[in-house]
């Protein structure tokens, strides 16, 4: 997607000849007064007449221009710069609504202690949580009593996030601690493709304006990328710039693939099945179209980072720093959303030098760091972490 423009409306007003300063308006008023045959003898800044004009005419005029017109009216006249309720009105014109916040829903695996045993009930309301991630513990709750049947070793239990938001769409293995033990259960954890419904914050202005822009290009009812992108991005958690298309007839003439990329985690088979059913079976596809919705393919990689902390850090701070660096690297590879960093995307270069700079920007305690990996050149896939090693090294 192209970058969203950020025009300087003040400069545009200047280019149009609109006065924006007090002295400019004084000069305009002087010229108008002279045109009317009125000559003001006292033009000093202490002149009672000009002080009155500044208070009653010039300052209100500047407020109307700078605050109301430039700061409010002009930005909200364009989709690229409108915000809040004004952007909601733009969306309404194209039969769109801002997507509300939603909770993550998925499957967590509960494992039996022994190979065999009697039936165990996983009670509704059971909490499964993460370690502390950037000062926050994320929890998901079992939504209904679920049996681990006799002599079965594992059961996939439906859970829902404690609160709304995309921060709960964590990668595989993050949810692995029971808040209270369950007799007969020794291990819990979420798989990589555990997500059924993607959690989301209320749709941001930038994401909504991209969907509005996409609506401009989807006026034809069938066959175009924009139409299918609009259909898919109605679902919470799927952003406009996270849908990628392969048009090269992957299954024969008239076929295409739509690859879904989540900001964190991976879509489950159930989620993909629902999307495919919605597109192909519910009357959403064009005549003769064959569109398959798939998860963005992955390439698994190992990452080794050698961390050199600053000399003045205590041992406890060094350990905490290494943990935070690990979480930031995982965020870049779409395992959590706790850091604002450059994330992996298809058809691009992922730069480890940029990642290193972002680590420096986030943590003052880093003296230096080294990655073994070279830059990753992606195609229609994204890299995922297999093993991440952050080793602590003595500073030089």
Write the layout of secondary structure elements.
Blueprint: H1 9-15, H2 22-35, H3 48-73, H4 84-93, E1 105-112, E2 120-122, E3 127-129, E4 139-142, E5 146-148, E6 154-161, E7 177-178, E8 185-189, E9 195-197, H5 205-216, H6 225-232, E10 243-246, E11 255-260, H7 269-280, E12 290-295, E13 298-309, H8 315-332, E14 349-350, H9 352-362, E15 366-371, E16 376-377, E17 382-392
Parallel strand pairs: 11-12, 13-17
Antiparallel strand pairs: 1-6, 1-8, 1-9, 2-5, 3-4, 3-7, 4-6, 10-11, 13-15, 14-16
Helix pairs in contact: 4-5
Largest sheet: 7 strands, antiparallel
Distance between the termini: 44 Å
- The average pLDDT is 87
**Oligomer description:** single chain
Radius of gyration, Cα only, in angstroms? 29 Å
| Fraction of residues in β-strands | 15-25%
Give helix and strand order, one letter per element, not per position: HHHHEEEEEEEEEHHEEHEEHEHEEE
Shape: extended
Secondary structure tally: strands: 17
SS-based structural class? alpha+beta
């Amino acid at each position: 997607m192209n970058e969203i423009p950020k025009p300087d409306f003040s400069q545009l007003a200047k280019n149009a000849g609109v006065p924006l300063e007090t002295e400019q308006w004084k000069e305009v008023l002087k010229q108008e007064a002279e045109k009317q045959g009125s000559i003001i003898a006292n033009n000093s800044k202490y002149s009672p007449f000009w002080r009155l004009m500044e208070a009653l005419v010039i300052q209100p005029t500047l407020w109307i221009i700078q605050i109301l017109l430039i700061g409010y009216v002009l930005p909200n006249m364009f989709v690229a710069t409108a915000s809040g309720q004004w952007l909601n009105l733009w969306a309404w014109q194209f039969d769109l609504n801002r997507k509300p916040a939603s909770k993550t829903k998925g499957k967590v695996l509960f494992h039996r202690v022994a190979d065999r045993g009697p039936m165990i009930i996983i009670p509704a309301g059971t909490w499964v949580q993460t370690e502390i991630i950037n000062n926050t513990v994320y929890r998901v709750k079992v939504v209904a009593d679920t049996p681990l049947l006799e002599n079965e070793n594992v059961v996939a239990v439906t859970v829902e996030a404690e609160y709304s938001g995309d921060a709960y769409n964590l990668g595989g293995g993050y949810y692995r601690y029971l808040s209270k033990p369950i007799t007969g259960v020794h291990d819990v954890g979420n798989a990589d493709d555990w997500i059924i419904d993607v959690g989301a914050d209320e749709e941001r202005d930038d994401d909504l304006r991209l969907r509005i822009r996409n609506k401009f290009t989807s006026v034809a009812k069938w066959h175009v990328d924009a139409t299918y992108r609009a259909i898919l991005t109605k679902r919470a958690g799927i952003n406009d710039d996270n849908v990628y298309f392969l048009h090269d007839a992957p299954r024969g003439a008239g076929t295409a693939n739509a690859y879904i990329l989540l900001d964190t985690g991976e879509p489950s088979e159930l989620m993909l099945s629902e999307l495919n059913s919605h597109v192909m079976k519910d009357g959403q596809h064009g005549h003769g179209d064959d569109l398959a919705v798939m998860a963005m393919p992955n390439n698994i990689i190992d990452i080794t980072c050698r961390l050199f902390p600053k000399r003045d850090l205590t041992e406890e701070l060094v350990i905490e720093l290494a943990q935070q660096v690990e979480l930031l690297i995982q965020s870049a590879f779409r395992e959590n959303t706790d850091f604002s960093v450059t994330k992996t995307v298809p058809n691009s270069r992922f730069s480890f030098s940029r990642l290193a700079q972002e680590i420096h920007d986030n943590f003052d305690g880093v003296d230096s760091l080294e990655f073994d990996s070279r830059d990753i050149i992606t195609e229609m896939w994204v890299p995922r972490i297999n093993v991440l090693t952050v080793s602590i090294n003595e500073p030089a």
